[in-house]
Design brief:
The protein is α+β, with helices and mostly antiparallel strands. The protein folds into 2 domains: 30 residues, no CATH class; 126 residues, GAF domain (Beta-Lactamase, 2-Layer Sandwich), CATH 3.30.450.40. It is 42% helix and 22% strand. It contains 6 helices and 5 strands. Strands 2-1-5-4-3 form a 5-stranded antiparallel β-sheet, with helices on both faces. The radius of gyration is 19 Å and the shape is globular.
């Protein structure tokens, strides 16, 4: 019985420790400016945005560096991101039964207008009365987001715990 209790106690400690390190490490080291920007931006626009991700061009290609879903971080860019980066035209997927949001990916620039990657936004249909209004809202959100990116390099900087993006 005592061995069983010790094994259960150890299993509980290991499982709690396995869940907690990501959050505690992020708090100690600080998040990247990009991740903080994503978190704050979605929080401010929660009535319109279901998700947001930033994919940045680098000498190693293009990949997601910050996202509302941590599983998306590190994913290589695909046609959704590469198309807008190449053409400047947004990639727009209308809501469907399986995905009830507008998935809009646009080219992303820093505040000086330099192309740095792409931003994917999952915009709730309630953000506008029709497709044109939702796309216009996505463009306005893009401009607001770009104004907060002084440079591509800034996105990779660690921010102190508790700090907020501008």
């Amino acid at each position: 019985m005592a061995i069983t209790r010790h094994v259960l106690a150890i299993a509980l400690i290991v499982s709690v420790t396995a869940i907690a390190p990501t959050a505690s490490r992020a708090q100690k080291q600080g998040e990247t400016y990009a991740q903080r920007l994503v978190n704050d931006f979605v929080r401010r626009h929660t009535s319109e945005l279901a998700a947001l991700e930033l994919a940045i061009i680098s000498d190693r290609g293009c990949a997601t560096i910050a996202a509302t879903d941590p599983k998306d971080v590190g994913e290589k860019c695909d046609d959704d991101e590469n198309g807008p980066i190449r053409t400047g035209q947004p990639d727009i997927e209308a809501p469907s039964k399986d995905d009830p949001v507008y998935d809009i990916t646009q080219a992303l620039h820093d505040s000086a207008g330099r192309l740095i990657g792409a931003v994917g936004m999952d915009i709730k249909p309630s953000a506008g009365p029709d497709r044109a209004a939702v796309v216009a809202r996505a463009k306005a959100l893009l401009q607001e987001l770009e104004a907060q990116i002084p440079s591509k390099e800034k996105l990779y900087e660690r921010t102190p715990s508790g700090a907020r993006s501008p």
